[in-house]
Amino acid sequence: MTGTDAPRPAAPPSLDVRGLAYAYPDGHQALFGVDLTVGRGERVALLGPNGAGKTTLVLHLNGILTGGVGTVRVAGLPVARANLAEIRRRVGIVFQDPDDQLFMPTVREDVAFGPAAGGLRGAALEERVEAALRRVGMEEFADRPPHHLSFGQRRRVAVATVLAMEPEILVLDEPSSNLDPASRRELADILRALDVTVLMVTHDLPYALELCPRSVVLSEGVIAADGRTQDLLGDDALMRTHRLELPFGFDPSSVTMGA
Fold first, then answer.
1. How far is CA 181 from the centre of its chain?
2. Which of 150, 167, 183, 250 has the most CB atoms around its CB within 10 Å?
């Protein structure tokens, strides 16, 4: 075999967390040695009760929190001070309240803000904005003020602002909260069609089952379970132990999972 015939090395996972432990300045220990790997293109739900450490973990993914023990790598790149600009481009976080992300006069300007700050200009910037809005079905609203949109539409625009940065991994904080059933379904269709890695933090267990083949349960700062979402949600003892509750009458085994 010649050098040119050698197989290419496998791409690193989108997310690789090893031994992550973190205590806040007041002494509260939020994470105790978390190990988590998320492969490229996976959709993974991060489940757990309030106070489990989910937010602390997410804030380590793009360097908002630092100074703990262990390592975090995004697409093979260490989350470290020297890499923060690139890490924050690669890790797109969509907050629970879209109004935390939308602050420009028009939808178009909101979606353009991140790429423009990164140096993109002219036709390339316009193309990037249009593509991001098209992926969330909001291209017709480009010139509307965000505050004139419904809550569900604003959430889709918030997703577009992150997609415009062409991230490696999309982190969604409670994406289904405060959505009516139609908006909930529309967002699910959008998320299923995306070709990026997704980490979804949610208390909405049916939504996790619908969108994420794999789930991770974080409880008291450690990974308590990691496996097929359908299997975890069907484990009554696991669910009780970690204060996870399905809606009354919902049977996860009755849901036919897609590919």
1. 21
2. 167
